[in-house]
Amino acid sequence: GADALREQAREFFECPLPSCDAPRPLTTRGGSRRDHFVHLAPHTHPGGPESLHHFQGKHLIAEWARTVTDAAVEVNEEEWSPDIRRRDDVMVTWPDGRQVAFEIEYKRSAVARFREKNDDYRRRGITPVWLFGHTSAYLRPDSRVDRDASLFRLTSVTEQVAGADLPVLFINPSEAKVGTLSREQESLAD
Fold first, then answer.
1. Do 104 and 141 meet the contact criterion of CB atoms below 8 Å apart?
2. Which of 38, 87, 108, 138 is deepest in the core (most CB within 10 A)?
3. In DSSP terms, which residues pair with 39 in a beta bridge?
4. Which residues contact 110 (CB under 8 A, 6 or more apart)?
5. Neighbouring residues of 1: CB distance < 8 A, sequence distance ≥ 6
């Protein structure tokens, strides 16, 4: 559908990221992977190329937290700076001072990076909640066992989350849904 939307995109569409310094004009591009929107003009998104799903996921979690709690909710925009070691995506601070950091992961992440960040939160007394994107980076059908793709396998990072006794949660901000995989089959090995 990229060709059919191109003129409309150039005239009416704009980048949805509020930090974009050149939100218009956009165009469409068809490619070997999938059709998508791209900027026509040079632009920057402070903090690097935060994906739309990541941006939407942070704001979905923040909106939920604000509606169900009296907690203070802070959404951190992606910023890269030598003096900032790491930033949580969404920090919820309860009235009694307890804190929960929500991390939305769409880019593939190394196990060592997860462990370091998770351990750092724990040392600081912050409860981490990890939400993995609904794309194939973390949600992979297990075609080795199930040709209908109703069974999924964990990645090395999601296995670490499960091993740390944390829920393995997935987020789909396009549908405003958060869910988890169930364990209907104990072992896929053999």
1. no
2. 138
3. 26
4. 157
5. 28, 35
Q: Rounded to 5 degrees, what are φ and ψ at 140?
A: -115, 120
Mean pLDDT computed over 139-155: 63
DSSP-derived 3-state class of residue 141: strand
Letter string b/e over residues 41-71, b meaning 16 or more CB atoms within 10 A of that residue's CB: eeeebeeeebeebbbbbbebbbebbeeeeeb
How far apart (Å, rounded) are the C-alpha atoms in residues 119 and 174? 30
Q: Where are any strands of DSSP class E within 48-148?
A: 72-75, 90-93, 99-105, 126-133, 140-141
Give one DSSP letter per residue of 23-64, joined into a string. Answer: ---EEEE--SS--EEEESS----TTS---HHHHHHHHHHHHH
| Sign of the alpha-carbon dihedral angle for 81, 86, 89, 93 | negative
pLDDT more than 70, % of the chain: 74
The DSSP call for residue 78 is: P
At 95, list the tokens: 């009235």
